[in-house]
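User: Good morning. I'm curious how magnesium ion would be positioned relative to this chain. Could you predict the structure with it bound?
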Amino acid sequence: MTARDRLRAIFGIEDPIIFPIPESSPELDLRHGVILYLEGISVSFDGFKAIDDLNLYIDDGELRCVIGPNGAGKTTMMDIITGKTKPDSGSAWFGGTIDLLQMDEPGIAEAGIGRKFQKPTVFEELIVHSNLELAMAGNKAAWPTFLARLDDGQKDRINETLKLINLESLTKTKAGSLSHGQKQWLEIGMLLMQNPKLLLIDEPVAGMTQQEMERTAELLTSLAGSHSVVVVEHDMDFIRSIARKVSVLHQGRILAEGTMDEVQNNQQVIEVYLGEYPC
Ligand SMILES: Nc1ncnc2c1ncn2[C@@H]1O[C@H](COP(=O)(O)OP(=O)(O)OP(=O)(O)O)[C@@H](O)[C@H]1O
Ligand SMILES: [Mg+2]
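Assistant: Good morning! Here's the predicted structure, ligand included:
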């Protein structure tokens, strides 16, 4: 029986997505305290410059918020960091030694960059606990043997993550029955099982209730320090509740950077963005 057949027998999954294998990560050099360097990055689509000479530096353990109008290039920036889009020029380094532009998407994920898209992608038919187990197992070929026996360390990690993502009381609930916000947390939990050093999170609170938003703010804040986190979001109340340093992206480049107060009072930022999304 192939690994896939056994998986199908256990879970009824037809074609599970492939998780990266976090086994052989290249060495991440954080001696300078900076985990991500983007320098002079530009990319055009059909002559339109979506990213235009972008410079962005993220510190190790930092929680950075990125805001900016629709079409400013925020998602494209994440596409470049994760290898989905290759820039026309510039450089992108993960720590001091890992050249992201020389790597493909799975390699970048393995190196320790996790990405959360806006729409949650969990295994709806599986219970919460199994979703985390599979995410921890990595490559689907390893799933059947992995699932046969979790050691105490692995069980502890899953339990810690369940607590962190506020799903401790729902471990046996099918992911498909969770609320939208709970699915988002589960997906963040699944990312965490792969031990990323840098997490990129695109519009996490869209569609969430106020209470879910507050819990998400606590979750992301608690991840900073042990992880570096880049959050893109339009919801200004949410941004204000988590923001330390905010970067404002406009027409593919950084328009302003600073505390929420600083960017909120920046005249250019008010003109291009905050006029539309008043604080
Ligand atoms: N693959 C692509 N092909 C063509 N144009 C693209 C592609 N990806 C992005 N763009 C364009 O690049 C610009 C930046 O888009 P991007 O999605 O990065 O913006 P954004 O800041 O994430 O906006 P939003 O806040 O609406 O999510 C847009 O004008 C978009 O249409
Ligand atoms: Mg976007």
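Residues 45, 50, 68, 70-76 surround adenosine-5'-triphosphate (ligand 1) (CB under 6 Å). Residues 3-274 form a domain with the Rossmann fold fold (CATH 3.40.50.300).
Let me know if you'd like a different ligand tried.
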